[in-house]
Design brief:
The protein is an alpha+beta fold and 233 residues long. It has helices at residues 34-43, 75-78, 88-97, 105-112, 125-135, 204-214, and strands at 2-4, 7-9, 20-22, 25-27, 101-102, 164-165, 225-226, 229-232. It contains 6 helices and 8 strands. The chain is globular, with a radius of gyration of 17 Å. GO terms for molecular function: formylglycine-generating oxidase activity.
């Protein structure tokens, strides 16, 4: 894990410009890989393909795996690739068993603002363009190894350009300031007129992430959705 120094940032979405405070936290360097998740299900049988309850994961859970304890003929190609087709429940259980937790939305977004050289690259046109280009690309047949992904200022790999990632409070439509509560979220955020009051309407990638998260349910599994763990300090 790496240390992400806390601070404040203004979310690039939503209807106000209230700064969000993020406490320092620890974040996994890489998303969880297939081989790491295989070790997890080997130790905890209730999270295997054939055993997981449908209330905790839909029918596509670990869809690319050959069986409960086998990645199949393509194992050498995907051992070090991020595990996908895992539900929020499964991701949370994995992190819990490591003595960790899923990152909060505000923590994930705060860390994802970092480019290779800047802790906050929100105004870096090149960094923004790279994000846009990745979100516009179809999924590759095999996801690349996590070690070959983009490394940011904090030493975290793959925040952009690898997979979407589960967050602890993914079903909160937006990050809120200390003066607001999740129950008062801006419910117009993803409506046609919802972006009119956004802090930075050009940041389409932030809207994409929040729109995607808001479409999820805890037992959903998606072919390009993985996770990594965090830890409070």
């Amino acid at each position: 894990m790496v240390h992400v120094k806390g601070g404040t940032f203004v979310p690039l979405y939503g209807s106000d410009s209230t700064p969000v405070k993020v406490q320092s936290f620890l974040l996994d360097v890489y998303p969880v890989t297939n081989s790491e998740y295989l070790a997890f299900v080997s130790k905890y049988p209730k999270w295997r393909k054939s055993a997981v309850k449908k209330i905790f994961a839909d029918e596509n859970y670990l869809r690319g795996w050959a069986s409960d304890l086998s990645l199949g003929a393509n194992a050498t190609k995907i051992n070090n690739s991020p595990v996908v087709n895992v539900s929020w429940f499964a991701a949370k259980a994995y992190c819990d068993c490591q003595g960790k937790r899923l990152a909060k939305v505000e923590e994930w977004e705060f860390a994802a603002l970092a480019s290779e050289t800047k802790a906050n690259a929100a105004n870096d046109a090149k960094f923004y363009q790279r994000s846009i280009e990745w979100y516009s690309q179809p999924n590759p047949t095999y996801l690349p190894p996590v070690q070959k992904s983009f490394r940011n200022y904090y030493g975290v790999y793959g925040m952009i350009g690898l997979v979407w990632e589960w967050t602890q409070n993914f079903n909160s439509a937006m990050v809120v300031g200390e003066s607001r509560a999740d129950v008062t979220m801006d419910r117009q955020l993803f409506c046609g007129s919802g972006s009119n009051g956004a802090k930075d309407v050009k940041n389409y990638v932030a809207f994409m992430r929040y729109a995607f998260r808001s479409s999820l349910k805890s037992n959903y599994t998606v072919a390009n959705l993985g996770f990594r763990c965090a830890k409070s300090i």
